[in-house]
Amino acid sequence: MGYFRENIEKAKGYEPGIQPAAAGVVKLNTNENPYPPSPEVIKAIVETSAEQLRRYPDPRGGAFRRAAADLNGVEPEWIICCNGGDDLLRMAFSAFCDKKRACAYPVPTYSLYPALAKVQNCRVIEVPFDDEFNLPARLAQTKAALTIVCNPNAPSGTFIAAGELASLADELKGVLLIDEAYVDFAEADCAGLVRDFDNVVVLRSMSKGYSLAGLRFGYAIARPEMIEGLMKVKDSYNVDAIAIAAATAAIRDQNYFRTNVNKVKAERGRLSEELRKLGFDVAKSCANFVLAKCRSCKAKDVYDKLIQRNIYVRFFDKPGLNDKLRITVGTKGQDDKLLDVLKEILS
Ligand SMILES: Cc1ncc(COP(=O)(O)O)c(C=O)c1O
Questions:
Q1: Does residue 108 have a cis peptide bond before it, meaning omega lies within 30 degrees of 0?
Q2: Is-contact 218 80, C-beta < 8 A?
Q3: How far does the centroid of ligand 1 lie from the alpha carbon of residue 51, in Å?
């Protein structure tokens, strides 16, 4: 017998996007925001006192809960803080799934879900999207304890209307977790569903719209009874004192946030249009990335050639995705570099 549980021994583990250490690379592979966080964030970090570091942090991140509650029009009891959205996903698997309690989600989607299911040793029911990434009707019939819908979906960037997810929540016996990591770049969100359904959890990330991927902070919105259940499976101090102060400053600075998000959205439109001119099919995206399908090129070849030129995008060697590249929306300068090199590669 080995040291590890059998399912861990067999697991491949999650494969994060490359984080190149070299300077001067154009990094469009892990959907970070190309702009820095609010100056208020840096101020909050610098102003964190030695005394705050000496003591354990607030285990529930009260200051952030209040700020997120104000923003979402709920009470702080409806909010749970997490060490990045991935932490909340791990909590959800731990709280809802085991050998007898399956997890379901439409595919293709965020590749962390199956990795977490493996660790929890729960059965996974993957229900394929159609070509337009419509919500598969079969998702309501899986009897899973946890159903996850990533909305906007990664890596397609497509969005499912709140009404459709309300019908799904109504039909499901288990929990519906709506992963809104990219919702800051969409025109609508599904947070309102938590008022009508006690089985809905809405997950948010501070990594994308708020430019805090390095800080590790996110939160979820749900009914207080659901939040209390999730509190039982979180690490005792899952968010640290600096992170609570910084994330609170970020979410309180809505003017800065909105300005940046609007810049990314405008650049997303331009990048999509320029990629179409180069011969890619690019569907409308509601996220901070686009999924570009090579019409007459091999996606993997283009991906490899871009890396040789220090440009990183994401390629997934999976059915339905291996003819496409997922490209994070960068600054105009970064995107122009990508477009220039693509022109060369494709000519
Ligand atoms: C779909 C999706 N959900 C959740 C996350 C988690 O983000 P974080 O842990 O940085 O908040 C990511 C990160 O890329 C993501 O793509």
A1: yes
A2: no
A3: 32
How confident is the model at residue 15, as a pLDDT?
Answer: 82
Rounded mean pLDDT of 248-256? 98
Give me the amino acid identity at 52: Q
Report pLDDT for 161: 98
DSSP-derived letter for residue 17 is P
State the pLDDT confidence band at 31, using cuts at 50, 70 and 90. Answer: very high
Centre of ligand 1 from the C-alpha of residue 15, in Å: 13
- The three-state DSSP-derived secondary structure of 22-85 is CCCCEECCCCCCCCCCCHHHHHHHHCCCHHHHHCCCCCCCHHHHHHHHHHHCCCHHHEEEECCH
Kindly tell me if the per-residue pLDDT of 164 is higher than 90.
yes
Residues 230 and 199: beta-carbon distance below 8 Å: no
Q: Which residues line ligand 1 (CB under 6 A)?
A: 31, 84-86, 110, 150, 154, 179, 181, 205, 207, 213, 218
Average pLDDT of the residues in 109-113: 96
Overall pTM > 0.70: yes
Pocket test for ligand 1, best of 14, 81, 86 (most atoms within 8 A of CB): 86
Per-residue CA distances from 311 to 30, 321, 327, 330, 332 (Å): 12, 19, 10, 12, 14
Task: Write down how long the chain is.
Answer: 347
pLDDT above 90 for 134: yes
Give me the pLDDT at residue 205, please. Answer: 98
Supply the residue whose CA is at minimum distance from atom 7 of ligand 1.
Answer: 85
- Is residue 276 scored above 80 in pLDDT? yes
**CB neighbour list of residue 15: distance below 8 Å, 6 or more residues apart:** 111
How many angstroms separate the Cα of 185 from the Cα of each of 62, 80, 241, 281, 290?
26, 22, 28, 20, 12
